[in-house]
Amino acid sequence: MDLYNNNITGEIPRSLGNLKSLVFLRLNNNSLTGQIPRELTKISNLKVSDVSNNDLCGTIPTTGPFERFPMTNFENNPRLRGPELQGGAAYDSGC
Asked: Which residues pair with 42 in a beta bridge?
């Protein structure tokens, strides 16, 4: 799903986690806010997720497919913290 550079606002829908066949999720260069939904960590087929250049907050997930995404896919989100430490900061930290 390539939705980059579309001037999209609002939060990333948690319902995207229901798309179990999703392989690419490019949401970079928009005006998205809120947290990265943890439902996305359950999509085992997800190979690419880029949310850079938005206004996301909270922490960066580190489980499931997010274990292998480079940090550059999350950069330029001034309120985003991370990566999330298991047992460390609450996932909504900074929102």
From this structure: none
> DSSP letter string over 7-61?
--EEEPPGGGGG-TT--EEE--SSEEEEPPPGGGGG-TT--EEE--SSEEEEE--
Does residue 90 surpass a pLDDT of 60?
no
Average pLDDT estimate for 70-74: 96
Please count the structural domains in the chain.
Answer: 1
pLDDT in tens, 27-50: 999 999 999 999 999 999 999 999
Q: Is 69 part of any domain?
A: yes
The boundaries of the domain holding residue 41 are: 9-81
Q: List the CATH number of the domain containing 17.
A: 3.80.10.10
